[in-house]
Prior knowledge:
Blueprint: E1 11-12, H1 15-25, E2 31-32, E3 36-37, E4 43-45, H2 55-59, E5 63-64, E6 72-73, H3 80-93, H4 95-100, H5 105-115, H6 121-133, H7 135-154, H8 159-171, H9 181-184, H10 196-210, H11 217-225, H12 246-259, H13 268-278, H14 285-295, H15 309-334, H16 339-362, H17 366-370, H18 374-378, H19 380-410, H20 419-434
Antiparallel strand pairs: 1-5, 2-6, 3-4
Helix pairs in contact: 3-5, 3-7, 5-7, 5-8, 6-7, 7-8, 7-12, 8-11, 10-11, 11-12, 13-19, 15-16, 15-19, 15-20, 16-19, 19-20
Amino acid sequence: MGEISSFSEPVAADATFLRAVTEMARRRPVVTSRAIYNDNGLKLLEGGVTVDGSLYERLVRHRLRTPLDECLDSEPSVSGKLLRGGVEELVTHSAFFAAMAPAGRLRSMLLEAVEAVPLPRAIGFQMTVLRESRPELFQHSLRAALLCGHLVREAGAPMHDVTMAAAAGLLHDLGMLNIDPALLMADQKLSGDDRRPLYAHPLTGSMLVQRFLVYPREVVRAVLEHHERLDGSGYPRGLAGDALSPLGRVLALAELVTAMFDGRRGHPELRVSLALRMNPGRYDPTLVRSVQRLLRTQSTPPEAATVLVEEVIHRLRLLAGLTRQWFELVQSLRAGEAPARVAVLDAVDAQVQSLQRMLFNAGITPEQLDCLGDDDTRDPAVRIELWALEKELQWHLRAIANQLQRRWRGDGPAQALPAPLDDWLATVRAMDQGG
Length: 435
C-alpha cells in the first residue's frame, strides 16, 4: 500500500467508530482485508472473515498495530461515481447549489473534480461508514466538496487544485466519526467538557487524512483549519489572519455556508446572507463576495405568515440586553481574577464587542427597534429578516458562552465560575431554550 505514509504507532480502537462499524455490519457485509493484531502481536481476527456483532467487544479494549480502517472492507464502498451522483442530485434539488454548477461545461468540470477525488481504500471505508451511520453528515460533506470546488475554480485555479479543494470539503468532517452521536443530539447547546470532542475533531480528521500521500499538505492543513476564523475566534488553535492557509480559508467559509443547509434551519439562503453580513471579519472577503453572488440568484422565502414578529422583537431586545449586561459584568470581574482568567475575559470581551458592532450595523438596538412601524412588521421580507437576525444573534451568544466556559475551565486548576458569570451563562442558555 504505497499510498500510505509511514505510520507505525499502535492506535487505540476508537469506541465510537467501532460501534458504528459494528452497526453497519448488521446491515451490509464487512470483511477483514487483513489480519488484525494488537500492539503486543496477538492476532485478534483473521484476514478474510466476515465481521459480526461481536467486533466491538473483541477490539474495544485493545491498541491495534494497524488502524482499523486499513483492516476492513465493505463492498460496494463509496466511490467517485457515487460521489458524482450525490452531487448531481444536490444541484437538481437546490437552487443555491445549482447556481454554482449551471448546466453545461462548468457543471461537468465540477462533477469531474468531485469524481476524481482520491479515495484510498481506508478512506473509502471511512466514507462508507459515514454514509451508512451519519447520512446527514455525508450530505454535508458533499455540499462542502461542491462549494470548495466552486470557490477555487472561480478563482481561476487549475483542475488539480479544484479536485483537491473538493477533497478537503469531502473529508473535512471524518473526525466526527469519533464523536458519540448522542452528544450531537444537543447540537450547539453542549457546554463544558461535553464539547471537548467537538473541539478536537478537526485534529482527528487531519490525522486520518495525513496518512495518505495522495493528499497534499494543503488538504491536510485545511481539514485541520476548517473551524478557524480570520479574527482568531475559531478552534482548535485560535489562528488569525495570515496564519490561516488559502485552502483553510475556503473550507472555513464552506463549513459555515453548507451547515445552513442541513435541513434543520428554515430559509438557509437568508441565514447565510445574514451570517456573512454579521461576521465581516471572520471570513476571506474575496470568497465571501463569491458566495454573495450566488445568493443574489435566490428569491425571498414566502413563509412569513408564521413569524410572530412581536415575539421576535421581544427576544431581540432581551438578547441585545445580554451583550450590555456582559460589559457591566466583565468590568467587575477583572479586578478579582488571576491574570490567566483575565486574559480569557478579555478575549471573550473582544468577541462580544464585535457582536455588538454587528448588531448595530444590522439595526438591532432598542432605538432602532422602536422605529419599526406597523407597515414594517407586516412586510414579509422584514418579518423573516428579523426572525433570522434573532436566530443568528442567539447562535452567536451561545457560541460565545460555550467558548467562555471552555476557556475558563481549561486554564489552570479546576475552579467554579463566579456566581455572576454563571448567572449570565444560565440566562444565555435559558434564552436559547426559549427560542
